[in-house]
Amino acid sequence: MQSKNRIFDDVAKVASGAVSTLTGVREEIDGLIRQQIERVMAEMDIVPREEFDAVKAMAAKARAEQDALNVRIAALEEALEKAKK
């Protein structure tokens, strides 16, 4: 009976060690894949999401300002036409 428990304990230790090793290998593989993806993205001139979002916000702001200026110009042109008459 005691030898069965000892065998089970040994098997559990080996399995635990294998899981720890596999976890470390998985983390290392994840890191390597991430590095490769970043390298490929840099070579392809793909911008990071943060930069894309910043430029998108700037474009939206510029578009809103342009719309406001177009409304203002239209109002000024209308006032000028009325002043000419």
Protein model, in words:
By secondary structure, this protein is mostly helical. Helix content is 92%, strand content 0%. The protein is built from two helices and no strands.
Arithmetic mean pLDDT: 88
Task: Report helical residue fraction.
Answer: over 70%
Secondary-structure element series? HH
**How many distinct helices?**
2
What overall form do the CA principal axes indicate? rod-shaped
Number of strands: 0
Q: What composes the largest sheet? A: none
Number of domains: 2
Name the beta content range: under 5%
Unreliable segments of 5+ consecutive residues: none
- Helix/strand-derived category reads mainly alpha
Distance between the termini: 112 Å
The Cα radius of gyration reads: 33 Å
In short:
It holds the Pfam family BMFP. This protein is mainly alpha-helical and 85 residues long. It has two domains: 1-46; 47-85.
Topology at a glance:
Blueprint: H1 2-43, H2 49-84
Protein name: Pyrroline-5-carboxylate reductase
InterPro entries: UbiK
Pfam families: BMFP
